[in-house]
Amino acid sequence: MLDQQTIATVKSTIPLLAATGPKLTAHFYDRMFTHNPELKDIFNMSNQRNGDQRQALFDAICAYAGNLENLAALLPAVERIAQKHTSFNIQPEQYQIVGTHLAGDAG
Fold it and tell me: What pTM, to 2 d.p., does this model score?
């Protein structure tokens, strides 16, 4: 569970997040695929080109930021994501790569 200060910090970033828009997730995918091109095999590259994937990730980030105090509201979306990831046989080490790039620590 997140403490109140962390929740307040995340909520304070929502306006910046909204202003940045999917440019944030476009940068994430560009960086991740540059450093880990093998991950292109598990993503629908058509959805990458048309922007659907970066919009979906951006929407998920916004939903999480806006529901930090009501995570149950996210459960249906999280279950859909988990089912999709299971069907694609996503491995634990792949989550680590994604997490590194989401955090911006890839260099």
Answer: 0.86
